């Protein structure tokens, strides 16, 4: 999987809310990419469908968190939503790793 853009950190000026929104959308895009790749691997290998479904659900949660960040009225709420989006990425990465492990195990057993 290709590298993702570097996450921006909180800034001291009034743009922190905008950075949080962008950060949440980066997390959602990362999750969406994982979902597409996981679905492809599962389709091609015929295993790991439950984990691929978990990645898809995580991508949905990340998109919802990004929307929540956009609708946030405060910087703190926007950053909280961004953290939720990145938590979904963590879940997606863990499920994707299980898919990879299952594929490797199948290849070793073949």
What would your notes on this structure say?
There is one protein chain. With 110 residues, the chain is mostly helical. The protein has one domain. The protein is 80% helix and 0% strand. The chain contains three helices and no strands. It is elongated. The mean pLDDT is 91.
Shape: elongated
SS field, number of helical segments: 3
- Strand tally is 0
Structural category: mainly alpha
CA(first)-CA(last) distance: 25 Å
The total number of structural domains is: 1
Strand content: under 5%
Helix content: over 70%
Mean pLDDT: 91
SSE arrangement, N to C: HHH
Radius of gyration based on Cα positions = 16 Å
Low-pLDDT segments, ≥5 res: none
Note the main sheet: none
Q: How do the strands and helices of this protein lay out in sequence?
A:
Layout: H1 16-45, H2 49-71, H3 75-109
Which characteristics define this entry?
single chain, 110 residues, mainly alpha, 80% helix, elongated
In short:
The protein has three helices and no strands.
């Amino acid at each position: 999987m290709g590298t993702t853009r570097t996450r921006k950190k909180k800034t001291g000026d009034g743009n922190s809310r905008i950075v949080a929104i962008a950060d949440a959308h980066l997390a959602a895009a990362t999750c969406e990419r994982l979902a597409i790749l996981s679905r492809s691997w599962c389709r091609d290998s015929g295993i790991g469908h439950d984990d691929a479904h978990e990645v898809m659900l995580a991508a949905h949660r990340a998109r919802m968190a990004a929307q929540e960040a956009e609708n946030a009225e405060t910087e703190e709420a926007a950053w909280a939503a961004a953290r939720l989006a990145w938590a979904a990425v963590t879940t997606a990465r863990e499920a994707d790793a299980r898919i990879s492990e299952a594929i490797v195990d199948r290849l070793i057993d073949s």
